[in-house]
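Reminder to self: tokens first, then the designed residues, so the page reads top to bottom the way the pipeline ran.
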């Protein structure tokens, strides 16, 4: 599972503390109770809970259900946070910096959660038919790595350390498993491979907004993942 390891993903998980809610139905009810009008506070609570869930040892199916329950609200919150820092003058003021930090924390926690889910499912592909979920999990992880990258891009802020590395490792894992090009979302018809191409193309078109990561590595591999017409 070396292809899925990262300093940005908890390496070990332990039994969840009593105060941590890890029951999928109860987590969904809690998410539904968060006030949409209080974006910053809701984002902070979500990132904190997800970080704790990522460090907890829970059934793989429960983890996926929790992550999928997060998606509707998390996507809305990420959009609202982006509106807070994306339209501000540079350098960002305190409010913009807080919104940027929370957007990256939330996106990073979601990406880590999906990568953990991939690892937990990978040993059960044949026995439980979990391979059907693998393209979706890989796509979700790639999407939230991309959301974290996009937040940095929008704010002209340095890309978090190891983010590009994680994106490459995830793509290489998906490619080795034969799922990189498989559709992970039936509604959008997107696959992990197409997500990776999109973010490479953005970085190649405007490398100054992708600092401080050295683009020589991705560009060396660009011929393998970006169409020659880009």
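Designed residues (230 positions):
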């Amino acid at each position: 599972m070396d292809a899925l390891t990262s300093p940005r993903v908890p390496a070990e998980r332990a039994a969840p503390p009593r105060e941590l809610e890890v029951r999928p139905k109860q987590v969904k009810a809690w998410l539904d109770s968060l006030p949409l009008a209080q974006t910053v506070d809701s984002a902070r609570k979500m990132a904190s809970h997800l970080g704790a869930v990522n460090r907890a040892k829970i059934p793989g199916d429960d983890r996926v259900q929790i992550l999928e329950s997060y998606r509707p609200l998390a996507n809305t919150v990420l959009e609202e946070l982006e509106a807070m820092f994306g339209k501000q003058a540079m350098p960002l003021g305190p409010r913009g910096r807080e919104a940027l930090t929370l957007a990256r924390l939330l996106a990073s926690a979601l990406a880590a959660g999906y990568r953990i889910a991939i690892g937990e499912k990978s040993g059960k592909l044949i026995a439980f038919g979990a391979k059907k979920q693998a393209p979706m999990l890989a796509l979700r992880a790639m999407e939230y790595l991309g959301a974290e990258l996009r937040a940095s891009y929008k704010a002209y802020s340095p890309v978090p350390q190891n983010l590009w590395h994680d994106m490459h490792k995830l793509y290489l894992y998906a490619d080795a498993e034969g799922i990189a090009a498989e559709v992970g979302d039936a509604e959008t018809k997107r696959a992990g491979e197409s997500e990776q191409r999109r973010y490479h193309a953005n970085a190649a078109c405007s490398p100054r907004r992708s600092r401080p990561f050295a683009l020589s590595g991705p560009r060396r591999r660009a011929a393998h993942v970006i169409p020659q017409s880009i």
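Residues 210-230 have pLDDT under 50 and may be disordered.
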